[in-house]
User: Fold these one by one.
Assistant:
Number 1:
Amino acid sequence: MQIGFIGLGNMGAPMAANLAKAGHQILGFDTTGVTVEGVTQVETASDAVAGADAVITMLPNGAILRAVADQVIPAMSKGAVLIDCSTVDVDSARAVADQAMGAGLLSVDAPVSGGIGGAAAGTLTFMAGGSEAAFAKAAPLFEIMGQKAVHCGEAGAGQAAKICNNMILGVTMIATCEAFALADKLGLDRQKMFDVVSTSSGYSWTMNAYCPAPGVGPQSPADNDYTPGFAAELMLKDLRLSQQAADSADADTPMGQVATSLYEQFVENEDGLGRDFSAMLPRFEKRGRE
Ligand code: NAD
């Protein structure tokens, strides 16, 4: 396939490189000049998409996605598929899908989980929203860039799945960290706490696979002085998207709301910026009841 790839940052660059390695012809565009192995750099977003069978975007947020979509949709060939892999708000995902379909294109919102490591290794998970035909056209590319793609429903369903998952992740990480901090104050050894909880009803991905306590459980960012991993500010971005979606859908999400304000406090007023999102544990450790 000929593929236009827009947004060659931490995630986009390795994803585009994997597509090139698999033999696809990639025209890449990013506002900051970057070089990616196997990818031909072009001067504008429109140059990247002209004549392409598929266009992939991997951008920071919904406003930028909408601006790029305004530019590239008119330049794309009818029947081509627009695949947005960025994490953005559900409303932007649906607006871009409507615009693309109105122009005779196929469209999929396909945010990912798996982070920079998954992007480099080609082991991402894609959560996709769009028509059957759009998903079918994008699926061979998901297979190269990832290990799993779930077709979640119509336009916006991929973003909905992503932010619901990450709202659970944020809430669970906080619960795991505050429980460790309480266990410390009750004199319970952290390893014993892990041994019990990881095999009891309090178990979770944050406890079992990504334990926030250094030296306990499998290797995680806690063992590397909380170097991300998944940075606290990215967790905050996703939690904010979940609350924006909850507002627009009139959903009651009290735990999501509290998690959002705790990560906001951590990133904006404390030392959370640039640290892994599991660094909530040292934050709670230092605090008392007030
Ligand atoms: P990044 O900031 O490294 O990359 C974004 C790229 O987009 C940058 O290179 C930037 O120059 C480029 N860009 C900005 N405006 C542009 C424009 N108008 N035209 C072309 N390029 C433009 O971010 P990232 O870590 O690669 O994340 C990309 C997306 O993936 C985000 O939506 C993020 O939430 C999501 N995501 C990131 C991770 C992660 O671990 N980094 C994990 C899952 C999902």
Note: Residues 6-12, 29-32, 45, 58-60, 64, 68, 86-87, 112, 115-116, 230, 234, 237 surround nicotinamide-adenine-dinucleotide (CB under 6 Å).
Number 2:
Amino acid sequence: MPRVLDCGRHRFDLSRPLVMGILNVTPDSFSDGGRYVDRARALDHARGMAADGADLIDVGGESTRPGAAPVTEEDELARVVDITATLAGEGLAVSVDTRKPAVMRSAIAAGAAMINDVAALTAPGALAACAQGGVGVCLMHMRGDPASMQQAPTYTDVVGEVRDFLLARAGACLAAGIARERIVLDPGFGFGKTLAHNLQLLRALPELAAAGYPVMAGLSRKSSLGQITGRAAAERLPASLAAALAAVARGAAIVRVHDVRETVDALKVWRAIEHPDVLPDALPDALPGA
Ligand code: 7PJ
């Protein structure tokens, strides 16, 4: 695996897992209920996640939840570009979650560090848009599209099909001039997958990681966790932490989460256990009362 992830101005050391904080700027995102549509609140939430230890802030102006309606380019640009420019101007590494080449180009011009595309840069012009500017790219696997993807998805070999698709898309990126160290792969949990598919993909994460690209895992508050626990989206923090740790233990380099502070703590504990040689220097030998 490359030891770094190159996102232009931001170069990430991958010797520890990275945390991407989710900033939904859609009116209908399922787990935030549109609370961050308001600009000032969106910016505050992003700054809070950065202060809590998020390495990247993923700004999304198009809901890709199952059954979500498409968003016009104009609406998506209005939701995403100014927030990206403001946060990037403050030095934050901003990822923009979009499938649209025009949004990619504007986001990159506004200072985005990464383009996170649930369609893996398959839209005409998306590869060319990302080749410029040195941004990182996250290539995610999705079966079908958000409107229909959860209608009885079937695979012969979900792990092999997802891996082959992602490696083909990584190859397309390399051919378009996107350097290897700028590419991240994501199996796309919940995107045209049943609970059984998601669990198979999570168990097989080491196989995907072995392909040599950093792997991102997005399980935070997802419906699979609700199926397992019986909890509503707002009650899925413990489930999300368990899923994030399981993903990192299987080789995920980046976890995409709503609950940054809690995830960062969980990962610190995991890392202190797994990598005792690299204890954070903030760890005192003895804490009073601990
Ligand atoms: C993902 C995403 C994911 C990547 C969403 C949600 C649905 N991008 N965008 N991976 N999920 N790369 O947050 O529940 O899993 S939107």
Note: The chain has a mean pLDDT of 92.
